[in-house]
Amino acid sequence: MAATKKGGKSSAQQIGLSEETLLGLYTSLLKTRLLDERFRRLFRQGRFAGTYFSAVGQEATTVGPTYGLRIEDIIAPSHREIGASVTKGVPLVMIAAQVYARSMSLDKGKSHPCHWGYKPLGVITPASTVAGQTIVGTGCAMGFKIQKKDNVVLAFFGEGSTSRGGWHEALNFAGIHKLPIVYICQNNLWAESVTATLQAGIEHFSDRARAYGFPGITIDGNDVVLVHKTAGEAIARARAGEGPTLIECMTYRWYGHSEIDPADYRAQEELDKWKKKDPVPTAEKLLMELGVLTTQKREALADEINQEIDEAIDACEKGKYSEPEEAYNDVYSEQFPVRREEV
Amino acid sequence: MKKVTYIEAITQALDEEMARDERVFLIGEDIAVYGGVFKATKGLLDKYGAERVIDSPISEVYIAGGSVGAALVGLRPVPEIQFADFITPSMDMIIQQMAKMRYRTGGQWTCPVTMRVCCGADIAGGLYHSQTNEQWFVSQPGLIVLMPSTPYDAKGLLKSAIRGDDPVIYFEHKRLYRWIKEEIPEDDFTVPIGKAAIRKEGTDLTLVTYGLMYHRSLEAVNSLEEEGISVELIDMRTLLPWDRETIFESVKKTSKVVLVQETSKTCGVMAEVGAAIAEEMFDYLDAPVTRVCGLDVPAVPFAPPMEHFFLPNAEKITRAVKKVLEY
Ligand SMILES: Cc1ncc(C[n+]2csc(CCOP(=O)(O)OP(=O)(O)O)c2C)c(N)n1
Ligand SMILES: [Mg+2]
Question: B23: pLDDT confidence band, cut at 50, 70 and 90?
């Protein structure tokens, strides 16, 4: 569909989103992509310790639902939700500081790369135990209900995490009490080296919702507009007290489980097929057709983002680790200081 | 002053804290309509409503993990685990979430959850209704672990736990629920976390214990007193972080130590207390640090003679004290 700039505007309305929202979604997508690729490069250059869990290819699944949330709404992430932090508005320098385990990171360097958390914007620093924040996030939603607040929780997890018992306990409880939570399953077909077909005997992970008495839906997770709109409806229902929704977003991770995984267990054709469904150019094409974006505007946006990333990384490169004795802090409230060993 | 049972003291603490602070709510199995299988939450549903007294499905992972989440958004959850034996499904949430929340977030998020755990043997409960299981939690920094032995402490410690900003595993002993009664003040009071109680001063030997075993030890100490043996009896009350000062001061005075716990000997609370005394008080000791514990078997066996064979009692404790004194 070729659209003139003028005609594009009306088309934007036709798909039910404002130009501002479309551009906002695209900006978050691009920012997430560029930052994620930068972190991968930096890890391979040995600029930070540990490993790195890239979400390249899956950005629309986190950007779409998060865009437009309120500050008070909670993000309960797992390990592949860089897009949720970026979209919620966490400053890139704070995202990078956590990857670099710097003292300026709000966790002071105690957490792990990719376990992003930022309390000022309601992002819970995750534990590594998968599905952990699905359970904790459900508790946040229970808390909102008890407090009679109309905030919502977005809980993110991979399809593999839905095999855990606690995941089921949480969704079961959310169904009973119609909690204000939206469950986002990022079905990227793999959990480390194990295919989705070895996680469950059902075709769609969204079918699991039926057992708990709320809607489940499977959608193209690489179409940011679709993800945003589907999640938006679920969020509105949750806010209105109508209960949870499970949204399964079909997607694919381009790289290994983490940067130390060569991902040689999967077929090249599968990867090639999914690369053709790259969420970033897909959104770009749509926005250009709608006249919301031009090549020039895109270049300017990318430059601006890259500069922001440069500054964030520069600050982290110059930043310091916490003193090792920081290890003694944040165990208990001040009332109970930890005993210091004298060896 | 009014005489109350241990379980009445717990109910009072819950009731008063719920009245004082609307952020406090309860969740657990059979706690609302039924008032709890031991009736600790009796009457609270009528008083505070279904939103603050929640009958949960049989979901120990969620009871623990959901409480963590509610705490993150500003509430003060007091979940109940019906039997300490069934706390195992909650371990993931307790160890990975509750205990580490403050640490892994650099203090951004805290986790003021008070988990009440109904525990303990000597009730003919068999393998799966007799465990105490505090030993698993005292090896996890970030948690506070309590086990009161009297109605006064049961109430005062529970109030401190609910008002504090740290996650607490609060073990309440089933055998004590209706057996132990005492007069407690009607005015509001708390008992500080982290402080042991010297129940009886003595000069010949230090006996350290907690929970039901405090009462078994008291029986032994009273009869030893009649024989002219003076034992200093310490009730730990807080098992993590435990009161090293009070115990070490007593060891300096008596130079002899007996440690008594209900659960199996290996890697129990007294393994740590004993090791710390050996490590830091070696110069003061005149006899081996000696433990009287439950047997090193997988669980408390059911048949009453076997259950009593498993558990420490006044007789076993008396024998251990005499052996150490004769060393
Ligand atoms: C309870 C638990 N078991 C195992 C692991 C190790 N692990 C980390 S991520 C992962 C795969 C998760 O797959 P999925 O939920 O599909 O998320 P994805 O990595 O595909 O985004 C595994 C097995 C873990 N972190 N937690
Ligand atoms: Mg997966």
Answer: very high
Q: Is B308 a catalytic residue?
A: no
Domains of chain A: 51-87+119-286 (3.40.50.970)
Instruction: Count other Cβ atoms within 10 Å, centred on residue A14.
Output: 9
CB-defined site of ligand 1, < 6 Å: A 80, 128-130, 157-161, 186, 188, 190-192, 257
User: Percent of chain B beyond pLDDT 70?
Assistant: 100
A105 lies within 8 A of chain B by CB: yes
User: Which residue on chain B is closest to A139 by alpha carbon?
Assistant: B66
Distance of residue A88 Cα from the nearest chain B Cα, in angstroms: 17
C-alpha of A302 from chain center: 20
Q: What is the CATH number of domain B2-184?
A: 3.40.50.970
pLDDT tens string B256-313: 999 999 999 999 999 999 999 999 999 999 999 999 999 999 999 999 999 999 999 9
Q: Per the structure block, which two tokens stand in for A90?
A: 């966490």
ipTM surpasses cut 0.95 = yes
* Helix boundaries (H) for chain A: 5-14, 19-44, 59-66, 82-88, 92-99, 132-146, 165-177, 224-239, 268-275, 279-289, 295-318
- The nearest CA of chain A is from the CA of B172 a distance in Å of 22
Q: Looking at domain B197-325, does it have CATH number 3.40.50.920?
A: yes
- Please report which confidence band the pLDDT of residue A6 belongs to, taking 50, 70 and 90 as the band edges: very low
Mark yes or no for CB contact B106/A127 under 8 Å: no
